[in-house]
Amino acid sequence: MDGLVAWWESLGAWQVPLRVLLIIVGAIVIRLILQFVINRAVRGIVTGVKKKQGIDDTQALVATPLAAVRVVQRTRTLGGVLSGVVTTAIVIVAVLLVISTTFPNAAGAFSLITAAIGAGLGFGAQNIVKDVLNGLFMVIEDQLGVGDVVDLGPATGVVESVGIRITDIRDVNGTLWHVRNGEIVRIGNISQGWARAIIDLAVPYESDIDEVEALILTTALELADEPKWKRLILEKPEVWGIESISAEAIVIRLVVKTRTSAKDDVARELRARLKRTLDTAGIRLPALNSIVLTGFEGAGSIRGARPPKTSPLPVVEQPRPARAPKTPKSPKGAS
To answer: What is the domain range of residue 82?
Structure first.
């Protein structure tokens, strides 16, 4: 021990740079250790959920109970937020230690400067504190998670990341919105619980309403009974009746309660089948104004079409007809 002290005193002017180097290396090591612990905890929880559900791919959780999906999303989001908090805290502490080591006599003056800066930036820093606290509470209370389709007011789309200050939202057009957590005053989350596919079908005014409603309901029930769609539909489809009447058409509403991630897929398949059913019945749909997707309707389509997976059909290769052998050409000049 005495030899180590003597060696340290013999460094002389090199003591300060060495201390600064040790502080930087220590901060990096501590950050790596804490990051490893956070990543391991997140990985352990996610792997446990997957193993409990008997799956390997996170995307397969879409067809599992909602609680499993929310645990995975919430854990990953919390892991990202904690990583940001740990990094920020370690950097601040390391900077303060480096300053106090480099300028040991400036501790009192540094305290006064810190107090003056704190008083001057108090009103500006409150927005940063508001962003951080609001982001933490949003994640802790499970208001949103990575992968959720949400409407935050300023932007609507899929949550790509939740930071300590900023939440990134990707809308249906591919635009990435950076929304400050402190500016989020309400959250509409359509990835929690269940969703409802609503189809408003306009039929000619002179159509037999009872017949049309029976055709619509029969088509929807046939879809709900098929194995590859049954797991995505939570309740039997319902015809709610006439939604509106005009001089050209009568609008009939069909609703289907689905899993949150399957609303658009079910709605698209239903529209296609209803169109074929009405064509077969000789009911021609009237021409109406085009519909522009906005809000949740547009956000829900951001992932594109994701029809249920089915087993591949066997491919039977047809044998190729045998080619006739080529006749050798006779050399020129031969008789």
So the answer is: 12-120
